Amino acid sequence: MKFFNKKRLLACLCLMGIHFSFAQFVVDGQFRPRTEYRNGFGSLISAASDPGFATATRVRLNTDYQTEKYRFYLSLQDVFVWGENRQLQPEDENNSFAVFEAWAQLELGSGWSAKLGRQVLSYDDQRILGEVDWTQQARNHDAALIQYSKNNLVIDAAFAFNQDFDNPSGFQSIGNTYNTPGFFSYKTMQMLYLKQKWESFATSLLMLNNGFQNFDGNDTANGVSNLQTLGMHFAYKKGDFGLAANAFLQTGERRGELQVKGAYLIGLDASYKASKAIGLGAGFEIISGNDGQTAGETGAFFPLYGTNHKFNGFMDYFYVGNHANSIGLFDIHVSANIKLRKKTSLLAKVLNFRGEKDLPSGENALGTEVDLVFAQKFKGYALKIGYSHLFPSDGMYELKGVAESDAASTQNWAWAMLIIKPKLFSSDK
């Protein structure tokens, strides 16, 4: 019997070897703990409050199986704060284990493919659609994506219809009501993206419609509000000089039938490689705000599903779960990226913030932020350390609803993050 089992095992291994010779199969992972000291991260901290200090970890296990006709990808993820579960706890109290990605991509021929399932939608500089990888949980979409790519032309069309019932009779019991509000969670989504590249220039067009479930005073579904976002991204790179620009408009309705009129985002960034070790950058971004004068209507733009942590300061005072219908933003920034050694770099960035609209007091100066990020690569892993400091102006205290006399004299944030991405198995080797 033992001999028979060994022969069966050998035969299975041979079959697997033959199968993998016609396909690519990769298993990899990620271990990413990040420790943070928060003393004014996201909003002003009062002098009476203690700073926050904690460590959160993201763990991922990814499998990627690819053949000539299709590709299957699965990413399992858990995000946990050290100590959030009591000792001998048999399950995760915060239910943080999740399927981050699960999709299949079918090759349709002549440059066409279809990608179905839970996936990341990330385009250009991620201003409107991005993975938001800085957050430990990151962002995904349950969608169907039709793609075309040929001769420097890219066309993507995405469609989503979201539901949240969890029983077999869901269609009958709740109809098509979508009960997952918050953070611009949408019931329906349609997206068209077109990009054309040339030798030194690329331009793209994004058209996005999001439908948000509305409810009346009795929590009964009351139709869908549709918000349209339309705009373009431009990128130019010639030698040591680069330019990137965004121009977007929003119209339609936010959730709750809030009319959006005249909302816009305009951004321009220039980069220059001063030497092999020093890269310089400068730019601005204007995001329209709301003056609050017309009930049921807003002129405030919101960048929706972008990687907002990348823009407007790393301390996340704007458009990161906040500032959704406020005074907008006028952000001017300069940066330097310095390569200290072959695997060592330092990023320094200074940003000055003003409101695109005035606050009720007439003030619009919000303050200045300084961001520093040190990065060191080692063999097989990397370490990043960051420090940010906010110098608030009078308008920031008014905006955040914290009296200057009550606020802590120092508003800062520091963090350290270890990144390990092991490749556990590859059929290519």
Explain the overall architecture.
The chain has 429 residues and is mostly beta strands. It has one domain: Porin, CATH 2.40.160. Helices cover 7% and strands 54% of the residues. It has 3 helices and 20 strands. It has helices at 2-20, 170-174, 394-400; strands spanning 24-39, 52-66, 70-81, 98-109, 112-119, 141-150, 153-161, 188-197, 201-215, 221-238, 241-254, 258-273, 278-287, 297-298, 329-341, 344-354, 365-378, 381-392, 411-420, 423-426. It has an 18-stranded antiparallel β-barrel.
Treating each run of at least 4 consecutive H or I residues as one helix, how many helices? 3
- CATH topology (fold) name: Porin
Number of domains: 1
- Give the uncertain stretches in residue-range form: none
Arithmetic mean of pLDDT: 92
What is the β-strand count? 20
N-C termini distance? 33 Å
Q: Radius of gyration, rounded? A: 24 Å
CATH class, named Mainly Beta
Main pleated sheet: 18 strands, antiparallel, barrel
DSSP helix fraction: under 10%
- Give the name of the CATH architecture: Beta Barrel
- Range of strand content: over 45%
What sort of overall outline do the alpha carbons produce when their principal axes are compared? globular
Question: Pairing-aware structural class of the strands and helices?
Answer: mainly beta
| Elements, N to C (H/E) | HEEEEEEEHEEEEEEEEEEEHEE
